[in-house]
Amino acid sequence: MSRPRAREAGVRFGSLSTGKKNSIADVAGVSVGHSTLRRGEGKLVVGEGPVRTGVTVVVPHEGDLFRRPVKGAYYSLNGCGALIGALQIQEFGLIDTPIGLTNTMSICAVGEGLVRYTMDRNPLAGVEEDTIIPIVSECDDSYLNDARGLHVRPEHVFEAIGNASSQVEEGSVGAGTGMVCHDFKGGIGTASRAIDIKGSEYLLGVLVLANHGNRNDLLVDGVPVGRLLDTLDPKRKEMGSIVTIVATDAPVDARQLKGLAKRVSMGLGMTGSCAHKGSGDIMIAFSTANVHDRRQTDKHIVTDKLLVDSEISNLYRGVVDATAESVTNALFKAETEKGRDDQIAPALPLEPTIEILKAHGRIE
To answer: How far is CA 26 from CA 5, 208, 243, 331, in A?
Structure first.
């Protein structure tokens, strides 16, 4: 049987309700696709494997993003990582390609894939219209993967986009295939919250690529599970990174989205992260509200409807709780992975974890 998500095992994260899927895809139009590369075993042979990597793509809406970009922002808590397209997001407050996630040394290949995908849909891009700047971020999966082999290629981006769905796979899939979280197997995790603001409901979803932290720091619902577990304790040399994507249908602008992105940090703290010096802690946020056609030439003024700042505190709360749940889901869903040179990332042992949480009154 597949491993349960944290909430299915009885863990709770705050008092806000989740969306129907409890995933980033609860935000209408958002989809997530993966391309998973897993082959070979044993001793590392650069260029041959073992390969434990992949691509994950978050698509903000079903239309043409280049033509109809979404409002966007990013925040870097700790900048030991890469975000292609960061300057454009900062300058214009827009995201106009799908968001790609992969391993550190494959960001250029994923960037090329996103550019080619967008060119295919926009034959005037780079000719009579703007050129294309892709949005790509990364984590280092070299503990398990043949990183120098550069196995991710642009066609894997097309595969991930082709697989994009509102049913989001979690754990050791796509970009999460070779990732390690708090010295256990990590990867992709997601969660959502339904936010009521004066009678109007908005959805907010989070997706993480979790590859950060060490075992002794791991918290689940405030319990130091990592320190209390009696199990395998392999150690990698570096502390990894985490990339978090926040999506919402709430009508907020780039400035407000940056505020949402910042609150991811607090959710990571709830799971025990302190953003180690060698960790890239990168947060991207977008809103599917107030989408305008960039090719409209008959108007020189566009109007956005925005939530007033005094009403968005529950969106902040939703980001914090959904981030903590997303990280925990990545750990609950990921299975043990043996990678290059037989290095192992063990799955979080669920039965002992649940017993610890029961002993501390977190699960009945």
So the answer is: 16, 15, 19, 21
